[in-house]
Predict the structure.
Amino acid sequence: MLFRRRKKATWAARLREFFWPRKGLTRPARYLSKRILRLSASPHAVAAGVAAGIFSAFTPLLGFHVLLALALAYLMAGNLLAAALATTIANPLTIPLIALATFRLGEVLLGISTAEAVTAGELFHRLEHLELSELWQPVLKPMLMGAGILGTLAAVLAYGATRFVVRSFRARRHARLLERAGIAAATPVLSRGDNTL
């Protein structure tokens, strides 16, 4: 194998690497943000794609986030790749928090009061084991209602932030290119001037 370790990692080292990677926990997020910033679409298209992906990540339609994001991005003239990349906000670490937040908000909006507090584990147990007819009223309806509010709010914020960041990133990159071109153009002029003296 081309990139194999010289010494095989110990069990303890592999366990530590699983919980705390050598490159850090923020590396995947930094990679995704750079990937989105470097897309060649317009700032509106990139921001609309990110907004579509984030909105779809708040829905309880697990397994269909990317398809929903692509459809929304297409309707909003957004970038499809940005939409697909933004759905990664719904990952195994964040899905329980998103699901519980949308469920709780949906209960409040619909005026549903339950005697017991539902945890994320119980919520996913219900999603997994109940039939659709049993699932709609107590679980899916509140989650969809909460996802509509929280997803829209998150999408609007993501659109504004992404559009601003993409524009400033491109302006800085353009200024750097002009600066390099100016230095390259000024260097021969200086050398010609020196020769004439």
About this structure: The two ends are 62 Å apart (CA to CA). The chain is about 75% helix and 0% strand. The helical segments are 11-19, 27-37, 43-57, 65-75, 80-86, 95-110, 120-129, 132-196. Residues 189-193 have pLDDT under 50 and may be disordered.
